[in-house]
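Researcher: I'd like a structural prediction for the single chain below. Treat it as a standalone chain; there are no partners to consider.
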Amino acid sequence: MPKLESKAIEIPSSIDLPPTWRWTRLLDLGEISPKNEAEDEREASFIPMSGIPQLHNGKLTLEAANWVNIKKGFTHFANGDVVVAKITPCFENGKAAIIDGLANGIGSGTTELHVFRPIHSDISSAYIYLFLRSPYFAVEGEKNMTGTAGQKRLPTEYFATRALPLPPAKEQARIVAKVDELMALCDTLEQQQQQRRKLQNALRQSTLQAVATATSPHELQTTWNRLADNFGQLFSAPEDIEDLRNLVLDLAVNGHLTERSESDENIERFIERCISAKADKLATGEMKRKVAAATDVEQLDIPIPQHWCTAQLDELFQFIDYRGKTPTKTNSGVVLVTAKNVRPGRLNEEPKEYISEASYKEWMTRGFPREGDLLITTEAPLGNVARINSQPDFALAQRVINLQPFADLNTQCAMYFLMSPTFQNLLELNSSGMTAKGIKASKLKQLALPIPPIEEQTRIVDHVLALMQFCDSWEKQLRDSQKLSERLCIAAISTFTGITTEPNEEPMKAPQTELIAPLRLGQAPDIKAQAPLANLLTRHNGEMSAKDLWQRYGGEIDAFYAQLKTEVAHGWIQEPEVAEMRQVTAERAEA
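Model: Treating it as a single chain, here is the predicted structure.
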């Protein structure tokens, strides 16, 4: 590389080397992207990007191959070479390795690698490996990457000419030994933290379960005091707060958030009004009379206050849904609300889809949504509920049912009840399907919901809102605390090393599919089955992001993916939808 060899070394002014060290660069110490010379029939090894580890001194994954089959179109390397991934996000994730264990000492692999081969025995491959994984190399490396988003690569020029602080050979060995010793301590600390996290998650779940299932005021007070006394230990990370929100909803549906008032209307009168309104709609032809076929339907089995009652959803709401082939989508016109727009507790504007005005008039023959109605998804994802908070001007797609109350039901209270883990578990029990769980409208109509007096519904909404605001506030404090801790850590490291890095919002970068596609519960596993991930999803409304599920699982990322593959193969967790795996190249997916 004559052009690069003539380039002067750009020595950072912020670093003073010990007297016995010298500044140099990889280009002057060895070969960049070397080529192997071997007989075609020689046995060799192949390493895909997935076989390059991202943990310190992680194990390589080798595949046996004949040299003739892998010598063209791939990156060459040999035992003792040092490699580093050059494409995003593999480079940022620290994928690098010292090549070892190759059949006959040679091999090839993914083209997305930079390779360095030392030309002198005094150049330690292990020391060069530390250099390539160091923030000193990686932080500036990220800034020097070229290409478009999702396809950025580390240039060969940076890899070959980045100023390298080189100590004498014996000191290189001492540095490598000390780093390995300290990394072992880091691994031990990480294992302890993960074990602590597992115990914390288990304790939090059992404590919340005890509060949610309390059957008397005394038991509720006792379990709540236990929760309050250990609050900081149980909820120490932002993602823990979702469990607290779920507890609030379960307390609401169980009748633990308000007390009876003598001025409250008798609940039977409310039910009578619902029945009367439904009869009027049937008489005027606004509803089609259809008797659901008798089916075995699981119902809520929870204690509720004596002055409450239960009613089937069919008695409380007119079901407005649309069947048949969805009208052709257009670039503009009437907004079409699909299951993707209905999120837990809210309606998302994105993604936006449209149908024509003519299709809208033809399509909306079963009724029109109104302000205050509820929308519920019946499949993929199952059981998301949102309230229409303004005058609607949209059409509804399939898999979304509009619940229009017959009488003056507080639909925000009903939304909280439907969102509660208690009711979500009921939906799961009554759903069907393997890869995509769904519930038929006929079954959904028969599910019962606890109903308090209308005045009490209002008080429940006020209490839930107040508690949710507390959850939001506590979550923000935890996030702010995390950011502050991260900045303090970065400042301390900068003081020691002189290297300044920007705090990363994510603990580890990952391929977009792993961050975008949610994981959803599939077929419920047998009670004796080893399905920890499916059990976690069950406790969180059957859907979580891969990142959140991994954090709650608490294990190594490789162990998490192995367990995930097992549970997907058994059908306990659904395969992520193809449509949600977007903007991912083959190399990135392989990573």
